[in-house]
Specification:
mainly alpha, five-stranded parallel β-sheet
């Protein structure tokens, strides 16, 4: 059984510090540990994985605060007009983030620095940092632990990661729902104040860019939709790129990804409960996002179609850059084309997930999401 006090003590011992900074992380940690105990249905491996994840996040937060205490000038860094990739999961948002990361004028949240942000990266060693090899070993171990997950999403230690990892430092993140069904934590997450998570998110971005530009951030995670108002409060100059795909393809694929990640960690896994959970959370998330966008903010959004990107990724990026008012250079275009060709070799092929496995009523889902399909012309 997970013990909150023991996890905190282990983190302090690992980091050799005990200052966690702003007192906003305790509430989420308490809710998470309690829900994992009562609803997680974790097996022995699951408890070990979540325990290590929580201790690692706490230790990372301690390290971040230690760097700020030693170098208070980090706070003077500015995060200007970040670009956030949003939209439903399994709509090509990860591939889009990798394509944007090919643009050397942009700064992505790389997997190796998201998992271990301290010491903050430096330009002189950003391509040789030993954490890159450690991150690759972690990816390899993850693929062994979750073999059904391999090929479902692009992965690279130097490639972009999701904002979930930074928000998890305040324990207000959908990261923790990726490996277990946690309905009470989900309910809390949809109603809690998310501004502290984004405030800490910004705190870490300042640290990461301090000694390692560029500072034009391109970030992403579908979960931003559910907390878009709080994100906007911390990043009022943010811009957004929204990826689109037919919901009848999205939800079965989301469920398949989460089943692949959760099954090895649970004593038994309820696929029908997963289907209900994913239908609920993404319907609520897209409603919040559409309401936000329709409230006079259309000029802050650009759009990318999943089908268009799959058929002609470079043309899609040219269109996107035009919407953003940016220049797509010849060098960036070549890098994008090379990444797309190389990554296509690793993409998983096979039969599409069966919606019935997860109890997904596709007629009901099409009805519930009709407002989304209609507004954005999703076929």
């Amino acid at each position: 059984m997970l013990d909150e006090n023991l996890l905190i003590a282990r983190a302090c011992e690992r980091a050799q510090h005990d200052d966690f900074g702003p007192d906003t992380w305790q509430e989420g940690l308490g809710v998470l540990v309690g829900v994992l105990t009562t609803e997680g249905n974790l097996n022995e491996l699951g408890e070990a994985v979540y325990s290590d994840q929580i201790v690692g996040l706490l230790a990372n937060r301690l390290e971040v605060e230690n760097w700020y205490s030693r170098y208070p000038e980090i706070e003077q860094q500015d995060i200007v007009a970040p670009l956030f990739g949003i939209g439903l999961p399994r709509t090509g948002s990860t591939a889009l983030s990798f394509l944007l990361a090919c643009d050397q004028s942009r700064r992505s949240l790389r997997t190796w620095e998201a998992s271990t942000p301290c010491p903050p990266p430096e330009t002189s060693t950003e391509h040789t940092d030993p954490r890159i090899a450690i991150s690759q070993a972690s990816i390899d171990a993850s693929h062994q632990m979750f073999p059904d997950f391999v090929g479902m999403l692009p992965s690279s230690p130097t490639g972009p990661s999701e904002c979930l990892h930074l928000m998890a430092l305040d324990f207000r993140s959908q990261l923790f729902q990726g490996m277990a069904i946690l309905p009470s934590y989900t309910a809390w997450l949809l109603t809690c104040d998310m501004e502290p998570a984004y405030r800490y998110h910004k705190r870490v971005l300042k640290l990461l860019q301090w000694r390692c530009p560029p500072v034009r951030w391109s970030l992403k995670t579908p979960s931003h939709m559910a907390s878009i108002q709080d994100l906007d409060a911390i990043y009022p100059d943010a811009r957004f790129v929204m990826t689109h795909r037919d919901i009848s393809s999205v939800l079965p694929s989301v469920c398949a990804v989460k089943e692949a990640l959760s099954t090895p960690l649970t004593a038994s896994f309820d696929c029908l409960a997963l289907g209900r959970h994913e239908h609920m959370i993404w319907l609520e998330s897209i409603r919040r996002l559409v309401d936000f966008r329709n409230d006079g903010r259309e000029n802050r959004f650009a759009d990318v179609s999943f089908s268009d990107m799959q058929s002609d990724p470079i043309s899609s990026m040219e269109t996107l850059y035009g919407q953003l008012g940016d220049e797509l250079t010849t060098d960036t275009r070549s890098r994008m084309a090379e990444w797309w060709e190389d990554s296509s070799k690793d993409r998983r092929q096979g039969v599409r997930p069966d919606p019935a496995t997860y109890g997904l009523d596709m007629a009901l889902i099409q009805k519930d999401f009709a407002f989304y399909h209609d507004q954005f012309g999703v076929q």
